[in-house]
UniProtKB/TrEMBL annotation:
GO biological process, one term: amino acid metabolic process
The protein's role, per its UniProt record: Catalyzes the condensation of carbamoyl phosphate and aspartate to form carbamoyl aspartate and inorganic phosphate, the committed step in the de novo pyrimidine nucleotide biosynthesis pathway.
Quaternary structure annotation from Swiss-Prot or TrEMBL: Heterododecamer (2C3:3R2) of six catalytic PyrB chains organized as two trimers (C3), and six regulatory PyrI chains organized as three dimers (R2).
Protein name: Aspartate carbamoyltransferase
Ligand binding (L-aspartate): 82, 165, 219
Entry EC no(s): 2.1.3.2
GO molecular function, one term: aspartate carbamoyltransferase activity
Keyword annotations from UniProtKB, A to Z: Pyrimidine biosynthesis, Transferase
Family that this chain belongs to: Belongs to the aspartate/ornithine carbamoyltransferase superfamily. ATCase family.
Catalytic reaction(s) noted: carbamoyl phosphate + L-aspartate = N-carbamoyl-L-aspartate + phosphate + H(+)
Pathway assigned to this chain's UniProt record: Pyrimidine metabolism; UMP biosynthesis via de novo pathway; (S)-dihydroorotate from bicarbonate: step 2/3
Residues given in the record as carbamoyl phosphate binding sites: 54-55, 104, 132, 135, 260-261
Amino acid sequence: VEHLLGIKYLNENDINLIFKTADHFKEVINRPIKKVPSLRDITIANLFFENSTRTKLSFELAEKRLSADVINFSAGQSSVKKGETLIDTVNNILAMKVDIVVMRHGNVGAGVFLSNHVNAKIINAGDGTHEHPTQALLDSYSIREKLGSVKGKKIVIIGDILHSRVALSNIFALQLQGAQVKVCGPTTLIPKYITSLGVEVETNLKKALEWCDVANVLRVQNERMDIKYFPSTREYTQLFGINKEILDNLGKKIVIMHPGPINRGVEITSDVADSDQSIILNQVENGVAVRMAVIYLLAQQIKR
Ligand code: CP
């Protein structure tokens, strides 16, 4: 693949190659000297048109660990505010001899659009409610690390599926690797097309948790929310919030994941998020190695 625009453009071999490469980089970043010189001739621009903590910092660190030159752009402090278009913005940045663009944008398909109009490798760091491919890769990588493999595992994605790019990319990635996937949440926050992807819907949280090996808990995305979709926050927490009592009554120890940022006390309580069942910070740690792998593999296609 020429770019990383979504998991739907990958196959199982692509994912295996990314994970094998990430295994190597994970070992590298645990050494006293955490850097390799591989990409010292490559320049990467991180363009963030939407807010981010984890993805932005993780990409920047991954790029620096590979010795690439890095420039960062946040739309809020840029000439986008004066009306400059996306293509003009990116072409001006590319005129400074940039090889790879990492972009987060609020619009679905922004990465595909960019890849059709500019001459650089594009990595989608989240496009609206569509895909967040590196998040899904680091999530699967973390499941594989914790449980030995993804194949045959039962994963439930819980919460605001409708507005979640993490859910869609995870569904594609998990299915490619032979996992069984269910979603669980209020029917108002589950898109109608989800069953056409081979994903079962479970609206009873207890049943979903009893079924699964792993629960990937999503944030309720208030910023994308239309009031008609939303049970009240209190109702949401009563029906779909994960707390220690629910987990302790399951009679088995499931793995808890969350892509962050967490609404503590809404979709998950602190005693669950911070428990030994949670791999939330392992996900963040693995994000750097997985992003190093993605960048490294794409950079091998650049003539230099
Ligand atoms: N998981 C994730 O995408 O977090 P950020 O929005 O902070 O990047």
